[in-house]
Amino acid sequence: MTVEQVRWKEGFPKIGIRPTIDGRRKGVRESLEDQTMAMAESVARLLTEQLRYPNGQPVECVIADSCIGGVAESAACATKFARAGVGVSITVTPCWCYGTETMDMDPSIPKAVWGFNGTERPGAVYLAAVLAGYAQKGLPAFGIYGGEVQDAGDTTIPEDVKEKLLRFAKAGIATAIMRGSSYLSMGSVSMGIAGSMVSDSFFQEYLGMRTEYIDMTEFVRRMEEGIYDSAEFEKALAWVEENCKEGADNNPESIQKTREQKDQDWETVVKMTLIARDLMVGNPRLAELGYGEEALGHNAIVSGFQGQRQWTDHFPNGDFLEAILNSSFDWNGIRAPYLVATENDSLNGAVMLMGYLLTNTAQIFADVRTYWSAESVERVTGHKLDGLAENGMLHLINSGPATLDGTGEQQENGKPVMKPFWNITEEEADRCLQATSWRPASVEYFRGGGYSSDYLTRGGMPMTMSRINLVKGIGPVLQIAEGYSVELPEHVHDVLDKRTDPTWPTTWFAPVLNGEGAFRSVYDVMDNWGANHGSISYGHIGADLITLASILRIPVNMHNVPDEKLFRPRAWGLFGTKDAEAADYRACQNFGPIYK
């Protein structure tokens, strides 16, 4: 078996659909059975058709064996769901039901209720009653109610209901997939970065994840003792020689490495990549080589590589390792990315994971490095910014870990995009590789050498930048900025890029401004960003992130998502309806972490 074949060996959580019904027999229940079950089946069909797991397979749904009219049937449904591996529940009904008798009582499962908007039976009355019960019991649930009245025989799902069902289901599945997985800390704290101080309590209580740790000497041990698949190493090295073009060496000639030393660095960084992947998910080939313990891996859905400085002062840096694993392809072909946070910034790793599970696309890791005003750009380059960048832009750049998908060389309808791996063609993967050069690492930063990926993201892509920060006394908070990648004239990019380290990948990012709070100007976005790093997802996914954050009880301190797209548990409105941001903080503090 290969690494990819065993990577998702434990499978994925399913979505449970709970058709609830008025339990009164001799006419009432009997008249509603078909309609109620049809609602459940239509929801299951929608989710299976529209949503996929990280391995590309359709999301699986489990429907209760019967409609749920009371406690006995609720218990039977809960038993079935537990045995089937259900991690998310959606209750549907066209009618009045007995609220606390038919509700889902599992506190760790995200839950939503769709109450049919019809006049024949009071589905909306049940929805209001059961959501009140959930709030009273401290089990926040999402309420879904269509904006238009439907006829009793209408089996379609209105568009506004579809949008909420899909948004909740994506966030719920993301929550359930994280639970029980691990963050693997490869090394410790990098250069005093607070996000590198991995918080066990955050990962355990808010995400339901373990934290695993290895010392970076484990890389040395595995390299020196040959604890990796040597056949795959030879295959990977040949692929690198053919596909990873080496760029110009910016180091002074007197300290540049020899050709022999550079070739040795290539061998080392390829081995490091294999070892990091094996540490995360295991590799059955290692068991065949006599390393049964190492073959198991750490069940890590995301990891972080410390690198600086203890490693990079002596060994080649981790830029190649991070860039290739974060990409959707390597020497084994097109596959799902392995998430690796540079400098072991576990908080950025966590939000990379959230963005990945919501989109199934690779994530860009970057420094939020510089705010360039239109005036500054014109002063330095003579060029007047216009279009998406007319109000200024942010220079997102960091050494190495940015996914090669971030080049924008994948396309849809002639426009640059980032795709789930199952939609990426071999030609698109090759274009991403050809758009990237591998520059010998700056000895100023990396005394041990190595290679940094260098590319420029194509402009015009909708993107969402996000970040989790920990605040003493509050806990985690999430910030979000939707915007677009920007394309600059070549000479303008060159001038600006050379003012920092030009051997690293660049994304020029223009956040969408709305004239409010942190989004009055691009400067305000930069000024309010809570840390030195951010994770960038393809697409405007801020609304999905907000829904996911509310499930996890993580308040959002900054976002530019339109109010009409906000979707949180109904109980959030009980903490105030005038100021949604303040109500979010109060609700998250009141209910506390989902797994505490």
Main attributes of the structure:
20 helices; 596 residues; cytoplasm; five-stranded parallel beta sheet; 19% strand; EC 5.3.1.25; alpha/beta; isomerase; six-stranded antiparallel beta barrel; globular
Structure in words:
Mn(2+) binds at residues 343, 367, 533. Keywords: Carbohydrate metabolism, Cytoplasm, Fucose metabolism, Isomerase, Manganese, Metal-binding. GO terms for molecular function: L-fucose isomerase activity. Pfam families: Fucose_iso_C, Fucose_iso_N1, Fucose_iso_N2. With 596 residues, the chain is an alpha/beta fold. The protein is globular and about 90 Å long.
Strand content: 15-25%
Sketch the major β-sheet: 6 strands, antiparallel, barrel
What is the 3D shape? globular
Count of extended strands? 22
Helical content class = 25-40%
Tell me briefly what this model is:
This protein is 37% helix and 19% strand. The relative contact order is 0.11.
Chain-wise SSE layout:
Layout (H helix, E strand, L loop, with lengths): L2 H5 L6 E6 L8 H23 L10 E3 L7 H14 L1 E8 L5 H4 L8 E5 L7 H14 L5 E3 L14 H20 L3 E5 L13 H8 L2 E5 L2 H9 L4 H14 L15 H23 L2 H5 L3 H5 L3 E6 L13 H8 L2 E2 L2 E2 L4 E4 L3 H14 L4 E9 L1 H8 L11 E5 L12 E3 L2 E3 L8 H9 L2 E4 L10 E4 L7 E10 L3 E11 L4 H8 L8 E6 L10 H7 L4 E6 L3 H11 L3 E3 L21 H12 L5
InterPro entries: Fuc/Ara_isomerase_C (IPR004216), Fuc_iso_dom3_sf (IPR038393), Fuc_isomerase_C (IPR015888), Fucose_iso_dom1_sf (IPR038391), Fucose_iso_N1 (IPR012888), Fucose_isomerase (IPR005763), Fucose_isomerase_dom2_sf (IPR038392), Fucose_isomerase_N/cen_sf (IPR009015)
Protein name: L-fucose isomerase
Subcellular location: Cytoplasm
